[in-house]
Design goal:
By secondary structure, this protein is α/β, with parallel strands linked by helices. The chain folds into 2 domains: 1-160, 3-Layer(aba) Sandwich (Rossmann fold), CATH 3.40.50.620; 162-314, HUPs (Rossmann fold), CATH 3.40.50.620. It has 11 helices and 10 strands. Strands 3-2-1-4-5-10-9-6-7-8 form a 10-stranded mixed β-sheet, with helices on both faces. Strand 1, helix 1 and strand 2 (34-42) form a beta-alpha-beta unit. The radius of gyration is 22 Å and the shape is elongated.
């Protein structure tokens, strides 16, 4: 795909869940300057299987498998037509959305990662996978492998049937958080979405005996006040960046919560309570070790944000 302002690789698998991902992207992504490739990797029967057709006893099985493959190819083509129509209805110009059905080479996840790196895409969009959408189930295998590979500057992990009308940006004072803010301002349609800059401050638990003497109420209160004061400049800078990107001030708000036991859980709870369909977060925060591909908070978000689109920005 040609180099462009917003190059997006949208990986699909032909399922209803995948169609919901297409709908989210078509309704959320800013059409101007966007180029999208809807990409599906299809598993093929190994060539050695067809060699068995030389044996007359295998001929009926060969014909049945060939018919199955043809049906799958038909389903994939029909899915791609639906996807293109969704983008067209959302205002994307002809030629800005392409489709491709690839034959599996090394594995679905590896093939998607290879395409993402080869094509130089700004964003890779994937669904959580069927297991990743179930309660108390881990992230789908393909999605998990792709996230670990970090094949694009930003990865959108879409679960459920979310909307980008309300966007929650998980903030800290890192440069990664500011990059997440810029990403939200650049990629999403303007004019309809409200953006909240959200920061959660962890509290100190004193449940263990004797901890009250080490961390008295006054000390814990001062720590929370210090943390709140330290995040203010980053929130102000984020507001300035969003204003530069022509996002109306009335659509920008900030919120700080303190004393939470888990920052990731606080982000997801805020998303649920505030009807935020989209969560944007930096891949690593201010305190994360550079050798790790994803920070602790963001990694936890991938497990908790089952009904939202989680946009992870590197």
């Amino acid at each position: 795909m040609a180099e462009g302002n917003k190059n997006v690789l949208l990986a699909v698998d032909g399922s209803d869940e995948s169609l919901a991902v297409v709908r989210y992207v078509s309704e959320s992504l800013h059409p101007t300057g966007s180029e999208v490739l809807v990409y599906q990797v299809m598993s093929k029967v190994p060539e050695v299987f067809w060699d068995l057709g030389k044996d007359p006893a295998w001929l009926p099985k060969i014909e049945a498998v060939r018919e199955y493959e043809q049906k799958q190819e038909g389903f994939a083509a029909s899915f791609m037509n639906k996807a293109v129509e969704m983008f067209k209805a959302a205002g994307f110009k002809p030629g800005s959305v392409a489709t491709r059905i690839g034959v599996q080479q090394e594995g679905i996840a590896r093939d998607i990662v290879a395409e993402a790196k080869r094509g130089g895409y700004n964003v890779l969009v994937i669904g959580r996978g069927k297991s990743g959408s179930a309660q108390d189930m881990p992230l789908g295998g393909v999605a998990s492998k792709i996230l670990s590979a970090a094949p694009a500057p930003a990865v959108w992990l879409v679960g459920g049937k979310p909307s980008s009308d309300n966007i929650l940006i998980a903030m800290d004072s890192s440069e990664n958080a500011i990059q997440a803010v810029k990403h939200a301002g650049k990629m999403f349609k303007h004019g309809k979405n409200n953006i909240t800059l959200f920061h959660a401050v962890r509290g100190i638990s004193v449940s263990m005996e004797g901890m009250e003497d080490i961390f008295p109420d006054s000390y814990r209160k001062r720590l929370l006040e210090d943390a709140e004061r330290e995040i203010r400049p980053a929130l102000k800078l984020a507001e300035l960046w969003l204003a530069k990107m022509d996002i109306a001030p009335e659509r920008i708000s900030t919120k700080i919560v303190t004393g939470v036991s888990s920052r990731a859980a606080a982000v997801v709870e805020e998303a649920k309570q505030g009807a935020y369909g989209t969560i944007v977060a930096g891949r690593r925060g201010i305190s994360e070790v550079a050798d790790f591909s994803m920070g602790r908070v963001t990694n936890k978000l991938t497990q908790l944000a089952k009904e939202q689109a989680l946009c992870i920005v590197g």
